[in-house]
Structures are given as C-alpha cells and as structure tokens.
Amino acid sequence: MAVLSAPRIVSARAEYEDSHTLARFLATGGNEALRKALTMHPEAVGAEVDAASLLGRGGAGFPAGRKWSMLRKSAISYLVVNGDESEPATFKDHFLVERDPHQLVEGVTIAAYALQVSQVFIFLRGEFALGLERVQQAVNDAYETGALGNKIFGSNFSLDVVVHPGAGAYICGEETSLIEALEGKRGFPRIKPPFFPAVTGLYGEPTVVNNVETMSNLPWIVLNGGAAFAALGQGRSTGTRLFALAGQVNRPGVYEIEMAKNTFRDLIFDPALGGGLAPGRSVKAIIPGGVSAPWFSPQQLDVPLGQDEVAEQGSMLGSGSVVVLDDSSCVVRAAWRITKFFSRESCGQCTPCREGSGWIERAMYRLEHGGGREEDLELLLDLCDNIAPGLTWPPQQTTICVLGPSIPSSVNSAITMFRDDFLAHVRHGGCPHD
C-alpha cells in the first residue's frame, strides 16, 4: 500500500473549489512564508532551499539551491519561471497554475528575494488559457495587496513580474529556447557552453530558470525549514512530488505523494491514487517520466518513485508524467504517435533531430498502417542508433539540446520489449487490434 502520511506541500489548497482565489489563499496561510522570508537575509533563504535538497521538478532534476548558487554576480540578473509544459500526458504544472496561482506567485517572489533580482518573467504555455488568466489575476492581486511592486510589505525589496504566454512550441520548454522566445526570437536552443543561463541568459545577463512546481514548493520550505522538507522522501529524492498519472487506469489525475517511499505499483493500484486497471486487464508497459523516457515493463512496477532509483533502471522521472499501457494497447501505435509528436515539434536546427525524427516517423507509420516489412525493425533501430549512439540512457548528445537523442526512446523500448507485436503488424498487414 502507498505511504500517504506526508503533508501535501503544493496541492493542499486544491481540495477547495475556490483554491485559485485571493480570499482562499489568504485564509489558508498565503503570504506568511513571504513575510517570513523578507525578515531573513537573502542568503539564509537560499540556504534553506539548499538544505531542502529540492530537485528541480521540470525534468532534469538539477538541485534548485545549487542552480541558484551558480548565478554569476551582476548588477542585472533575471529569474525566469518555466511553465511551458508541453509534453504529451504531462499536466501537473497545468494543475498548479489553474488551482493555486497565488502559491506560485508567492514562491516566485521568495526566489527573487533570495536571488536579489528585481525582474521575473513567468513563461506559460499559450494554450493554458484558464491558467494564464488566473496567474495574471494572482499577479494583479499581489500588486494590489503589496506583495509585489515597490517595497514589498514595507521592506526594502522591490519586484516586477511579467506573465508571458508562449506560442505553443514544445521546444520552448528547453530553458535556452525559452529565453530566445522571451527575447522575441524563434525558439532555438542555444549552444552550452557558452550560453549557460546562469552566466549568459536573458538579454545576455545572468538568469535562473526554474519550473512552476519547483517555485510552488518554496513557501512551505521557508515556513517549515529545509530540514523538514529533506526529512521527507529518501536519498537525493527529498520531499513530495506531483505525478500526472494517465493512460489506462481507473483514476487518472494529479497526485502528490512522498518521493522514493512509494512505487509505481502504489501510484497505479492504490485505491486512493490510480485505483488500478479495468477488470481483467494487466499492465503491459509503463512510460515512467514523460514520453521521452525509456519504457518500463511490469517487472519494474516495484521500482521506487525516486530520481536515482528510476535512473538505475535505465529511465528517468523526467516531467512527472506516468503513462500506463494495459494489455489491450497497441505499442506500435503508441510509439508511432510519440515519434510523430517529436517530429512535428523538432525546431529543425540540428540534422539528426530534424531529419532522423521524420525518417523514424515514416517507418513507424508504414508499420502501423499496413506497409511494414520485417527489415523495418532493424532499419528503425539503426536510425535510432544514429541519433543516439549506443541507445543508452542517458543518451549520448548529438544535438544542441536533448530533444533529438530522446526521440529514439519510445521506438527502441517498444521494439526491444515487444518485437512480436511489430512482427504481427507486418504479417497482419496493419494493426491486429483494429
């Protein structure tokens, strides 16, 4: 059974229908953490985040405190919040911006104070129409109540926050592409080095880029202390985390649970969480960390939901998305649709990604729609190996950003785990499930 005793750190207000309103926010302790932070030295706030060992919740899992410490000292610097959540079946940031936007704004202000920056940009996916409206309203409310603007709550700290809608490009979830888009350019990833944002970021100035969920954890950490956060979870995977559970489960949704002390089996089958599968169905495969992650088999259901534990099994927690495929699923179709998404969303800057994704997608389309050949399986694996040599995880880098080398994950996993399903498509002349 799942361990559900941990406090709900970022989703506590979600039980209220009016969780997005200023009245509910203030009635449930809103801005108490910000007021406390403003009485502390900025470095002391950063020290609490460092003590919490808060891993970034955007996908890479880089410790937030360490990222902050890398910020080059400069008269001008920026904080950018990455809310361009665009990966299929990933919707936990979407949940946060709609259900508790004031918490996000409070966390952003705490981070800005710790970093001593005076300008923040919250970059949200343009399709988040309701989320954009609510975050903008939360920012407006913060200005009106003195939680943003000049001399916040009578302190010597001032901050301006701009909410910036993206144009729907998946690649802008990559931090340097996001920065390019903020500057009014096409969302192309920058080469690192030299363009590490903490050194040369937005408008050429030092910049910290953090995820929406990462920011939303900060009020609780400031109020309760970094040690209290670090006491939850285990190993490097401290605190709680939001998981977006999707696929063929009875209760898909967003669940906040303690990291590493719960397993994929707990998340999927516990009655308080995923609630299991339809009667008579069994797990065929799990996509453990967003559709760019290598797949897991049913034998890995008992792997803990921890950063290192999942990595040791050859995949990643990534974006916090867990997709369940049951034994009625067509894995060829699933892998084809994932590849089609990445092919469409490639920015086109790097040849392996631009060309390779299209070649893989066309071969997968052929298999799914009746024109496949047995030799297509080896052709696909060869194409995948050219994009990500060795087909290891983490993948070898052949492109400017990690989008390219992530493309082979679903195809390689599907062929390796379910070769017979691919051969059945060839022999049947299309999908046997149709």
Overview of the molecule:
The chain has 434 residues and is an alpha/beta fold. It has 3 domains: 12-230, Rossmann fold (3-Layer(aba) Sandwich); 233-326, Ubiquitin-like (UB roll); 331-428, de novo design (two linked rop proteins) (Up-down Bundle), CATH 1.20.1440. It has 18 helices and 10 strands. The chain has a 4-stranded parallel β-sheet with strand order 3-2-1-4, with helices on both faces. β2 (119-124), α7 and β3 (160-165) form a beta-alpha-beta unit. The radius of gyration is 22 Å and the shape is globular. The two termini are 36 Å apart. 54% of the residues are buried. The model has no long low-confidence stretch (mean pLDDT 94).
Set down the secondary structure blueprint.
Layout: H1 22-27, H2 32-38, H3 42-52, H4 64-69, E1 78-83, H5 92-99, H6 101-115, E2 119-124, H7 129-144, E3 160-165, H8 175-182, E4 207-211, H9 212-224, H10 226-230, E5 233-234, E6 237-238, E7 240-247, E8 253-258, H11 264-269, E9 283-287, H12 307-312, E10 321-326, H13 331-345, H14 351-368, H15 375-387, H16 403-406, H17 408-417, H18 419-428
Parallel strand pairs: 1-2, 1-4, 2-3, 7-10
Antiparallel strand pairs: 5-6, 7-8, 9-10
Helix pairs in contact: 2-6, 2-9, 3-6, 5-7, 6-7, 6-9, 13-14, 13-17, 14-15, 15-17, 17-18
